[in-house]
Amino acid sequence: MKAYPFTTLSCLLIATVISLNVYAQKQAHGRVWSKAKANTWYAQHKWISGSDFIPSTAINQLEMWQADTFDPATIDRELGYAEGIGFNTMRVFLYSLAWKEDNAGFKKRVDEYLTIANKHHIQTMFVFFDDCWNADAKIGKQPAPKPGIHNSGWLQDPGNRLNDAGIYTDLEAYVKDVMTTFKDDKRILLWDLYNEPGNSGKGDASMALLSKTFGWAREVNPSQPVSAGLWAWNLENLNTYQAANSDVLTYHDYTDENSHLKTIQLLKTNGKPMICTEYMARPRNSRFANIMPMLKKENVGALNWGFVMGKTNTIYAWDTPIPDGSEPKEWFHDIFRKDGTPYKQDEVDLIKKLNGK
Predict the structure, then answer these.
(1) Domain containing 345 — which CATH number?
(2) 74: which of 25, 36, 55, 195 fits an S-S bond (Cβ 3.0–4.6 Å)?
(3) For residue 103, how far is the Cα from the chain centroid?
(4) Which is it for the CA torsion 115, 120, 125, 131, positive or negative?
(5) What would the pLDDT profile of 321-335 be if each residue is shown by its tens digit?
(6) Is residue 12 part of a domain?
(7) Tens digits of per-residue pLDDT, 281-305?
(8) Total domains in the fold of the chain
């Protein structure tokens, strides 16, 4: 969701992360996929292309998954837009409080989402936890978007609840229940266990939940790979752990093509297949025109942040609000308006071409 720029120091840090993998593997859980198994799995898939997805009618993960606001009609329509440009994978954030409120209903809605996505020939990458944006989630009606502010209602998970007594027991039950239910479901491409651990100033404090979550996932032992994406090159301990314990290497990069390519070249020394699960911030020169063709050439999966403009307000930049809510001169993220009209037709034409549409 928000990544640090690539620097010379960053290169050194990544090199250190890779060099420490031998040590970290000794700390890894027993069923981390071998590189051979991971690369065989990757070779069985068409080039992975898609987006992070939340329907335009949801401000955050709770609004997407709570029973009163789950919106299959919008999901169906907007995943139709994705199918139309050849996207085959969408990355979707779950939410633990929605599960806790109604385990069975939550899983039924997850299954309904997967049914809709599968109809559009789209596999799903589900995310369990997240350290980004607002820390104090509450069940029930969600707030309205704040005009012109990027992701004004997005929620960390578990956020402040990590201080609650018994929270790890709840989170373990959540991960294991959802993952066990769908552990052999071919509609799921990959489990992304934790988005940007260490964000919001947490740093290494997120290691406890990160390591526990990998442990819970390994106990379930799903047929799909598990991962947690690298995103901030200064978080050396987290990066080392994530790289060692992920079956497939996922990462975020919002820099231009030269910097992004250096990231790929360094991470490729790990030997695992790679998927970029967040990129594309137009004002930062991370664009479809310069990044997506490079990712395909390098055989790296490509999932950009933002799909249909909506309540998340991700057409606005991370740190450049427009208080009157007027449309920015250049969108930060997102591809389509709500009616399916492309923000930029040339971008959509390129995406279709790269996807063989």
Answers:
(1) 3.20.20.80
(2) 55
(3) 23
(4) negative
(5) 999 999 999 999 999
(6) yes
(7) 999 999 999 999 999 999 999 999 9
(8) 1
Residue 298 lies in a domain: yes
Hey, how many other C-beta atoms are within 10 angstroms of the C-beta on 207?
A: 17
Pick the closest to residue 88 from 229, 6, 212, 187 (CA basis): 187
Select from 356, 355, 357, 330 the least CA-distant residue to 343: 330
Contact, 256 vs 280, CB < 8 A?
no
Tell me how long the chain is. Answer: 357
Least confident of 22-26, 120-124, 225-229, 340-344: 22-26
List C-alpha distances in Å: 194 to 76, 92, 151, 340: 26, 12, 18, 30
Burial (CB count within 10 angstroms: exposed 0-12, middle 13-18, buried 19+), residue 111: middle
Q: How far does CA 94 lie from the centroid of its chain?
A: 10
Q: What band does 6 get if pLDDT is binned at 50, 70 and 90?
A: very low
**First vs last C-alpha separation in the chain:** 28
CB atoms within 10 A of CB 237: 15
Domain that holds residue 221: 8-354
- E strand or H helix at 12: helix 8-19
Hey, which bits of the chain come out as E strands?
49-52, 89-93, 123-130, 188-195, 226-227, 249-252, 274-278, 301-304
Helices (H) and strands (E) in the chain, counts: 13, 8
Angle at which helix 8-19 crosses helix 257-267, to 10 degrees, equals 20
Q: Which residues contact 110 (CB under 8 A, 6 or more apart)?
A: 65, 94, 126, 178, 182
Q: Would residue 203 be called left, alpha or beta, if left means φ above 0 and alpha means ψ between -120 and 50 degrees?
A: left
Q: What is the DSSP string of 127-156?
A: EEEE-SSB----SSSPPPPPTT-TTTT-B-
Residue 191 is classified by DSSP as E
In-domain check, residue 2: no
Confidence of residue 90 (pLDDT cuts 50, 70, 90): very high
